[in-house]
Amino acid sequence: MPRCLHYEKGGGIMDNQETKKPKKKLTRNHCINFAVTEQEREMIDRRMAQTGMKNRRAYLLKMAVDGRVIHIELESVREMVRLLSNATNNINQIAKRANETGNIYAADLEDLSSRYEEIWSQTKTILRKLGDL
């Protein structure tokens, strides 16, 4: 089993056999180490931040194995869910009013049409972003 050196907080180096953590059965038993300049480390950290990953080891492993990390921004999806929820509520209100009065109002249909356009606009935005991946 390889003996990897780990950097300890505070700048010291400790051997993996000196850690105070309980021993676990390791499935990764090969150690790959490489040095980088300060600028390279900063670039790695910037790119890692763009992916939303917080763990540098996990980021570097993902990059080494897959060649890229894809981060999908979910804010646009959350916005679409909000728009869908609003449209669904409006449809339910219109259906209830139609059942009670037997009428559907033009203003209600215009509102639905407007919400429908918002939803499609948001869908197109999401699809464009996915296409850029």
Shape: elongated
User: Count of DSSP E strands?
Assistant: 2
The low-confidence runs, each spanning 5 or more residues with pLDDT under 50, are 7-16
Count of helical regions:
4
Question: What is the chain-wise order of helices and strands?
Answer: EEHHHH
Largest sheet: 2 strands, antiparallel
Q: How far apart are the first and last residues' alpha carbons, in Å?
A: 39 Å
Strand content: under 5%
* Strand line-up across the major sheet: 1-2
- Sheet/helix structural class: mainly alpha
Q: For the CA atoms, what is the radius of gyration? A: 26 Å
Helix percent band: 55-70%
Number of domains: 2
Whole-number mean pLDDT = 78
Describe this structure in words.
The structure is a single chain. With 133 residues, this protein is mostly helical. The chain folds into two domains: 5-66, no CATH class; 75-132. The protein is 59% helix and 5% strand. Strands 1-2 form a two-stranded antiparallel ribbon. α3 (75-101) packs antiparallel against α4 (106-132). It is elongated. Residues 7-16 have low confidence and may be disordered.
How would you summarize the topology of this molecule?
Elements: E1 5-7, E2 13-15, H1 38-51, H2 56-66, H3 75-101, H4 106-132
Antiparallel strand pairs: 1-2
Helix pairs in contact: 3-4
